[in-house]
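During the reporting period the student researcher (J.K.) took over the structure-prediction task from the postdoctoral fellow and processed the backlog of single-chain submissions. One of the processed entries is reproduced below for the supervisory committee.
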Amino acid sequence: MKKEDIEKILEDLNALKCKTAKDVEEARVRYLGKRGEITALFEEFRSVDGAVKRELGRPLNELKQKAIAKIEELKEALAQIEDESAPKADLSLPGDPMSLGSRHPVSIVRQEIVGIFRKFGYDVAEGPEIEDDHHVFEALNFPANHPARDMQDTFFVSAGHLNPLLLRTHTSSVQVRAMETMPLPIRVVCPGRVFRNEAISARAHCIFHQIEGLYIDENVTFADLKQAILLFAREMFGPETQIRMRPSYFPFTEPSAEVDVSCNICHGKGCNICKGTGWLEILGCGMVDPNVLKASGIDPEKYSGFAFGMGLERIAMLKWQVNDLRHYFENDLRFLREFNTSIEV
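J.K. obtained the following structure tokens:
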């Protein structure tokens, strides 16, 4: 090993030029690789005597550091050349188009119904989805042996005590809370999600949405109820819409009725949507049972009222002729885009 060997490699490094990243890597391997020239000098340096080590040790270390620095310098120079040659972004070009999201069909129907009843002077009331037995059943005149209290019909969160917790089966529980806390007269609509232990099919689901209404004041009659439902139906389905009320039964109203509207597809002539009858069922309603008023501390001798309730999915199905309830819960973009009224930007 001689000093001239170090100087020769140093001279080659100073004159080294590379045009590509491949050339830089080959130079690194040539000088600093496991079998590189500088690596070979270090291997030879181990076997020389002490006098030579003292003479060549420092120049040899400096050679290695200069080789590392030269390789890095060449890499940076090539990277800068590539950056300068790369095409520049034209900031004046328009951006990529992005489509805005839209509301879910159930949300669209909910907002439309709430908007209609707000025009009639109704406020919006909401309550918890996990409720107690008192607000869901007892205060609404459900007897202790009613099927709805069975676990086959209701999702119970906790059981085994006097007032078990459960997932509310209707938003009528919000009406009870309104009667307990709000000053009279009361005029509210109660939208929200409800849960029932049902098999999922095209016509039923274990999760769905309701909107219920409640009006309590002095001298409220069934005629007031009929007029409110008629006005709503004509706002929702068109000014020519007619309603039909059929006697029914609900534990918390008496008398009770199911309400049909004239089919807005065939206009009463009969079609596959209304199954040839010319009518579509939309909601249940009735006069608030005096026992329900008493349970919430309202004097039934002075006050009376009516209540109604409808499924939002049902209204949406009628409005857009959707034939399968499951579409609302599957997050299928092909289905949801059918309701997209947003503007492309």
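The committee noted the following: The chain has two domains: 3-85, 105-339.
J.K. will present the remaining backlog at the next meeting.
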